[in-house]
Fold these 4 entries.
Entry 1:
Amino acid sequence: MSTSGPDATTQPRALPEVEVRRSARRRKTVTAFRESGRIVVVVPARLSSAEERRWVEEMVRRVERRESRQAPPTTDAQLQVRADDLARAHLDPVLGSAPRPRSVVWVDNQQRRWGSCTPASGTIRLSRRLQQLPDWVVDYVLVHELAHLVHGQHDDAFWRLVQHYPRTAEARGYLQGWADAQARGSAGPVDAD
């Protein structure tokens, strides 16, 4: 059984292989997990076909959302898509339509910065060191750099825009703690910008 999310008509995407298992022992709970490359959804045996379809769609969305949060993007193409998704989710609602970068790339030559943005060319560069950090921290750095496409300086308007990413304070604290730990074992501190 294959299902698709609500946006499947607007964006073609590969549909996951889904197996539904009905359990006579289950009364209320529904669970889902990956097994051998497919998503397995376990539902109570008493569910109607309509309820099963609704739960399968919901649980596939949950598994895919969880998987997308588990690791930061590793390719430049994935990073570009993630930047566009973050702009749509956190900046477009505030600005109407946030500017989109022309390119978003991983770089190896940023040892003292997490990211940088050149608004004139619409280029965002993220330090490849971020790939070892949690995805929500990478998302914060992307939102931070996306905000520079609107506000070049770290002024109040810039920070108000960045604050629309819900984990801003947490990510800034994480990056500062990580930088402090690295500084104790290396030649110097790492800038958070």
Entry 2:
Amino acid sequence: MIAVEDITVERGGVRVLSEVSLTVEEGEFLALVGPNGAGKSTLLNTVGGILSPAAGRVVAAGREIETLSARETARLVASVPQETSFGFDFTVREVVEMGRTPYRARLRRRPDPDGRDQIDRALARTETDELADRSVTTLSGGEKQRVLLARALAQDAPYLLLDEPTASLDINHQVRTLGLVADLDETVVAAIHDLNLAARFCDRIALLADGKLRAVGPPEDVLTAERLERAFGTSVTVGEHPVTGTPVVTAFRQQGQEI
């Protein structure tokens, strides 16, 4: 379980998150949603040990993240950033192999007996094994996203953090990527900007606004018109998808409403 306990995070003297508490159960897929600047990425980076809270703490598998070394954290939490560029002409397998870094020494070679199996398994789970020998520079956006996910899975960490995993992807790759994530055994926390995709694929949703946690629970409980209008500052209607039965959110601008 991941437990976020009353964390407050400040960046450049500005409070970004204020007294946020939530738990993520083992094997759960939790979506972080909210307007731009709500603190979604900041919360992910704090859970991942990249940022330190000014107050409160994050506990994963019974261990306080801030007390762990970078290597210990990487063996516990794997992250997929929103944007990643490759400065060299790596093959897909080489990129995925980077996920094994926490298990290898920096200055001397340390045996990694599980490495090959973990890499092969990560490639297979993300359906990128057929791309293994291709250069990452030749891949589409959706293929690159699955390769980054494979790299994270190769870390063999029980917790997976995703920052906008469907950003800039077409609808086919959005559905394919989130469907793949939803089928994982790992505990997943993802910042997702598309409310309808979050409702369709995630077990629970945490709604952030103005640096505070406004609601957390099943999609149908959190994605209400009243809550969303307060969080996003716009008018919305919430219906039900005719096939999946999940909430469908439609935002609209009322006549005379400022842009």
Entry 3:
Amino acid sequence: MPATTRGTVVVADDSRLMRRVLSQTLRDSGYDVVGEAEDGDAALQLCRSAKPDVMTLDLAMPGLDGMGVLRTLRRDGLDIPVVVVSAFSPAHGARAVDALAEGAFDLIEKPKVGETLSDFGRQLDEKVFAAAGRSKLRRRPTPAAPRPRVAGAPPVPRRVSHPRPARRGTGRPPVVVIATSTGGPRALAQLMPKLPSPLGAGVLMVQHMPPGFTGSLAQRLDNDSPLHIVEAQGGERIEPGLALLAPGGSHLHLADARSVRLGDGDPVGGLRPRADLTIQDVVDRHGGDVLLVVLTGMGNDGLAGARAVKAAGGRILVEAEETCAVYGMPRAVADAGLADAVLPLHDLPAAIVEEVSR
């Protein structure tokens, strides 16, 4: 294996052309493609023998399909991050969201006929690189157990929290804004069913996903959650029992204090929707009556918004590294000293309820 490789990858797709495109794109980006599989059984065999850092996975394959591959990997304890590469249709969108909830690392849409491969290659590289990094991190040897704590020494805190100043806003129930990216669908699938309805003044959610897939995510979350969760179409009212999810391919803005609109402005930092834009709009309309929750994700989307929330007197909760698929977005906010609490995912529902009840 070349010393300069960025990671080893197995490519699984029933289309010979797509396997060729994926493999060549990955090799051009510096990855070592250690095997190609045309069906799920062959993909699993390659994963067991080659033990790649990452697998790219088509969901619609003959025999054992992509969902079967994901479930078998989990059942057999094969901790190989999977980047789903899927075409979009209503059926494929729902299946891709199910795959993310089953533990797939991330999702990328297959290039459409006539599209250039440059943008697809950039996205594929970004997501596979992040997945390979997580894989290598988890394969590091377990560090030795810490020495017993000296009597009288303060315990290492499991959470980071700061004193609660009185909110500088009006004291009305806050608008809850949830921002997330890589690993978000799975995190949301665990978080949203545990949140009550009504919740604060209402909920706005920004999840980085390709256009067409967020509708399926909203429907899946809605089926399991007390809150009514829908993909925003523009014009909806912000209501205490409603959670509006930004659609892939559009920025989510506030038209006024109580309603939303969609924007087709340029991507910001390669992202559309961009959580920072939504958060800033909420701060502009609601001042300190904002609770920002930043979950797992690559990059630093949410950091600029967190600065605005903190300046207005709002509150900020971020997910702890121990439960994040990628500790990027939460780390950016925590390292900037803006988080009021850094909590594992399973502690966030109670913390959110406590914050909106103040």
Entry 4:
Amino acid sequence: MSHPSHAQPSISSVFTALVRRDVTLAWGQGGASLLALGFFLIAVSLFPFGVGPEPQILARIAPGIIWVVALLASVVSLDRLYQADYEDGSLDDLVLSPMGLVGIAGAKVLAHWLSTTLPLAVAAPALAVLLNFPDEGYWVLVGSLLIGTPALSLIGSIGASLTVAVRRGGVLMFLLILPLYVPTLIFGVGAVDAAVMMGDPLPHLALLAATTLIALVVSLAASAAALKLALE
């Protein structure tokens, strides 16, 4: 009589469990997501005091302020994207799961976007009010952030995986990924500026979406390769 074998967990179940765990940890006590959101709220709120209360000036520079600060806020939590699991040995266990390294990178990136960069996009309209942001640009601002912020998490994954075995590699990671963020920043701000100036934001949004798709294709494979080197 044969004994029933224990069913192996499916790729989707392991993927979902990893995403849920990372999101929970990110919003836990002292989580990186709270730090990133707090940085975003405080930094944007300080600009009216530093630049001055003139509505015209604030409205003109508002798209750049929100996008740049959102970019910097997303970087705040990237240094722990893989490092915590690498240090406690969890990453070695995850490699043995059905997902493989590409699946691990995908789950980590999705969890980072859901817990860190997506809340920045949601909070952006409220902060735009402080900068006297024109009403006609709100939907494009939110849309550009929803389209472009996944690229921030994807590109950040490359830097986080390259520096996972480096002690205090946060500065090195920032230097590695900052130049790669430039196209996303240009197209995101360009789309919002076009909407505010009564132009057509669709070409900028299309380029922004293309940037995110390219980052999706490249970053997961690059992150998996970097993690493999770190674990060898």
